[in-house]
Amino acid sequence: METIIRGIPVSQGVAIGPVYVLGSVESKLPPSYLSDEELIPGEVDRFQQAVAKAQAEITKLKSSVQADARQDVGPIFDAHILILSDPSLNSEVLRRIQRNRMTAEYAVQCTIGEYVRGLKGKPFLNPRINDMQDIERRLLRAILGRQYEELHSLGREVVIIAHDLTPSQTADMDRDHILGFATDIGGTTGHTAIVARAREIPAVVGLGNISDTIQSGTEVILDGSRGLLIISPQESTRAAYEKMRADFRRFGAELLSESGRPAVTLDGCRVHVQGNIEFPQETESIVRNSADGIGLYRTEFIYLENEGEPDEETHFSSYSRVVKAAAGRPVTIRTLDLGYDKAFHLQDGENFTLEKNPGLGCRAIRYCFANPDLFRNQIRAICRASAFGEVKMLIPMVSSRDEVQKVIRLVKSVQERLSDEGVACDPDMQIGIMVEVPSVALTLDHFCDICDFFSIGTNDLIQYLLAVDRANEQVAQLYRPEHPSVLRTIKNIIDSAQAGNVPVSMCGEMAGDPMFVLFLLGLGLRNFSVSPPQIPEVKKIIRTSSLESARKVADSVMSLSSARDVRNCLRGAAAKYF
Ligand code: PEP
Ligand code: MG
C-alpha cells in the first residue's frame, strides 16, 4: 500500500528506485564466505589484528579525550576495551570463521548482530547496544579500512536511507548509482544538505525513524522539492513522478543554456553571481554554469580527501588548481572552518575533542588560532596561490575586531617571509570576513576600516540569531530565514557596508533561494554566491526583474512583523518565476 512520509526538503529533484538501508543489520555487508579451507588461518589473523588495532585506537582515544574532558570518561573506553577482549565474543567470531568459513568481517557482523538482538528486549541495557555497535563499526573499519560503508561503489541504482549521513559520506557518493537519499535526522543548512545540493543529489532529511522501519529493496519515490518519501507508490503516482522528473531535467537544461548571459536587471543594474565550492573539481561547474567567480571555497573539505593533517603543499596544490581552472575569475578562499558538523579529522584521530556545544565552541578561526602551525601552513598556501590569479582570503566565524587584526598581522608576516624566500605572491591580496556572528553584524561599522570585503553567512547567522541549531531536525520549523529579525539584521549589514564603502556579498544558502533573490536585490545586495546548480536560476530571476520592483518587494516585506506574512509576501512576488 502506498504510504507518504513528510520530512524536510533539502535538495531538489526526484529519485525513483529501490531503497538501500545504510547501517541496518541486514544491509551492512552481504554474506561472505571463504572459498577454501586453507584461507582460514589468514582470516583468523585478520580478525586478531583488527582486535589489536581497535584496542590500540581506543587506548589512544581514551588518553587524548581524558586530557580535555571535564568529567571522567575513562570508564566508557575501559568498557569497550573489555568487550573487545571478552573471550566468549572472540571465540564466537573464531567459531564462525573456522567452522562456518565466514570471512572475518561477516563473522564479526553476525556475532555482534546476535548480541545486539539479545539486548534489544532489555531497555535498561540500551547503552550497551550503542557500545556494541560502536565496537562493531570500529572492528569492521579495522578489517576493511575505508571500504567499509563506502558509498562510492555500490554497483546498482538505489535510494539511500540512513539514520544520518556525514558531509564526507555525501561527498563520497557514487552519482551513477545513488539516485537520492533520505535520513532520520538533519536540517536544511547542515553541511550534509549543502553537499547534497552542490552535487545535485535529491535529498530529504528529518524523517523520524524511517531507517528503522523500511526494508532494503522497498520501492520508493523521493521528492526532494517537497520533502516527501513515497513508499511502495501506486502506478499512477509513479507515472506522475516520472513526468515530473523529466520536466525538472528539461527546465534545468533550459536555464543552463541561458546562463552564459550576464545578470543585468531590466533597468540595467549589473549583479555578480558567483558560486560556492567544496572541492577543486567543482571549479568545472563554476565555469559550466557561467559564474562570475568563486565567492566561497570551503577549504575544510580538504580534510576529506587526505588522511591526517594536510601540509602546506597539499593546501597549495588544491588552491593553485582552483585558481588556474577559474581562468581569471576571482576566487575567494575561506580559511578552515573546522569544528561543529565539519569535524572530519576530529572523529577518530589524535585531535579528538569532546565539545558539549560545538556550534559555540572551538570552531573555525578559533580552532585556527589554537593550532598556529596548521593555520600558518594554510595562509602560506593561500598567499602562494595568489600569484596565479585574483585570490581573496575570507575568515569564518569572526566575533571581534581583534581576531581580524591578528589575522592581518599573520598574513603580512607570511607575505614578508615568502618575499624573503623569493616566492611569488600578491602583496595586495584582499582580506575579508564572514558576517555570521551577531556581535559582528551589530557593529559592522567597526570593521569597515580593517576589512576589504564582507560576506554574509546566513546559515550560521540565522542559527545564532534565532538560537536554533541549523542541523537539528527537532527545531527545523524554528529555523526561519524569513524571520523579521533576520531580515532586519541583513538590511543593517548591507546598509553599514555601503556606508563604509566596503563591498558586501552573501554566500549563505539564502542567497540561492529563489524566494529571497528579489528581496535581497531590493535591499541593495549586488553580489550573490550560491551553489553552482543554482546559478542559472538566480541569474534568470535577476535578468527578468527591475530594481524598482525589487525595492518595492523589500519595502513591503520590511514592514511585516511575522515570519508567516513575510513568507506569503515573498512567495507571491516570486510566483511568476516558477
Ligand atoms: C554560512 O554560515 O552561511 C556559510 C556560508 O558557511 P558554512 O555553511 O560553511 O558555515
Ligand atoms: Mg558559516
How are the secondary structure elements laid out?
Layout: E1 3-6, E2 8-11, E3 14-21, H1 40-68, H2 74-84, H3 87-98, H4 104-120, H5 126-144, E4 158-162, H6 167-171, E5 178-183, H7 191-198, E6 203-205, H8 210-213, E7 219-223, E8 228-231, H9 235-258, E9 263-264, E10 270-277, H10 283-288, E11 294-298, H11 302-305, H12 312-325, E12 331-334, H13 365-370, H14 372-385, E13 391-395, H15 401-421, E14 430-435, H16 438-442, E15 453-456, H17 458-466, H18 484-499, E16 504-506, H19 514-523, E17 527-530, H20 535-543, H21 547-558, H22 563-574
Parallel strand pairs: 3-4, 4-5, 5-6, 10-11, 10-17, 11-12, 12-13, 13-14, 14-15, 15-16
Antiparallel strand pairs: 1-8, 2-6, 3-7, 7-8, 9-10
Helix pairs in contact: 1-2, 1-3, 1-5, 3-4, 4-5, 12-14, 14-15, 19-20, 19-21, 19-22, 21-22
The structure holds phosphoenolpyruvate and magnesium ion.
Verbal overview:
- The chain is α/β, with parallel strands linked by helices and 578 residues long.
- The protein has 22 helices and 17 strands.
- α1 packs antiparallel against α2, α4 runs antiparallel to α5 and α12 runs parallel beside α14.
- The longest helix is centred in the N-terminal third of the chain and has 29 residues.
- The structure holds phosphoenolpyruvate and magnesium ion (MG).
- Magnesium ion binds next to α17.
